[in-house]
Predict the 3D structure of the following.
Amino acid sequence: MEVRRLGASGLRVPALSFGTATFGGAGDFFKAWGSTDSAGAARLVDICLDHGVAMFDSADVYSDGLAEEILGQAIVGKRNRVLISTKVTFPTGEGANDFGSSRIHLIEAVDAALRRLAVDRIDLLQLHGQDYNTPVEETLATLDQLVRDGKVRYVGASNFSGWHLMKSLAVADRYGYPRHVAHQVYYSLLNRDYEWDLLDLGRDQGVGAVVWSPLGWGKLTGKIRRGQPAKPGTRAHDIADTGPHFDEERLFRIVDALERVAQETGKTIPQIALNWLLQRDTVANVIIGARNEEQLIENVGAVGWRLNEAQIAALDAASDQPPVYPAWHQRGFPMLHESGGASRG
């Protein structure tokens, strides 16, 4: 397994991590993702570790905390071999302070996550979404406290706007608080919005991208094509009205390009889509999911090889989309970037 530096931090992470949204299956939404129980999770964790996938991502809202509980049970006796990444800030109850990035909620949410995971620290804590109401200074001071208390090692964000992430980084620099070293983002061939602003921010500020839903909310598996709709029992069918927006004809065009590259390389369509992401600038880690061992082994097969320049260019062309303003306006100006990832550090 390839190991990469997470942003401008000293933390090194595997190129692939395992997402635990499929653990538990509580409620209709997460049931559509999967319903892996404790025994199944333990088996998947063992397979991950056998292949060097030693980072596991969760969140307090995944199946109402059940995903974290199952992950904690699955890593008993293996804590020194794994990195745990989890997320907080989304609502976890009906109370006035049961959500957000306030001091009261962050401290309570981290303590609750530690109890569910049955561990004494979280290696990477990410704010699941940005809080418009809590002062950034309060949030970062609390994260600083959690790091100093030994409950958290590194901090990151998820689903932030560029301006909010940059504001957080500036406040962290001003007061000496821990910087966000990771930004867990949605990024795939189906939706390349990350490239319009957040990628440049990550490169400039040393924030590594941890990519969620790299197969476009389950639509880049090759199972959805012209005249071949999503099947019952899949996210693309059971919760079709959720997830990122996309143009159907563009999806088919991308899948056609993936199929051509798959025939050239002898790899599967999901492996091609994942490998394309692993070669994008600032991407430190791609979160893979799996309902079963077969899916997991297939996804792990995305590493250890590289698409060539012509294949990448073909996928770039098939998935290209007009950016929003001001990105489309800026495309008219010459832009020079140093290769090699984030420039800060």
The first strand starts at residue 3 and ends at 5. Strands lie at 3-5, 12-14, 16-19, 55-57, 83-88, 122-127, 152-158, 180-186, 208-212, 283-288. Residues 209 and 283 are 5 Å apart (CA to CA). Residues 248-265 form the longest helix (18 residues).
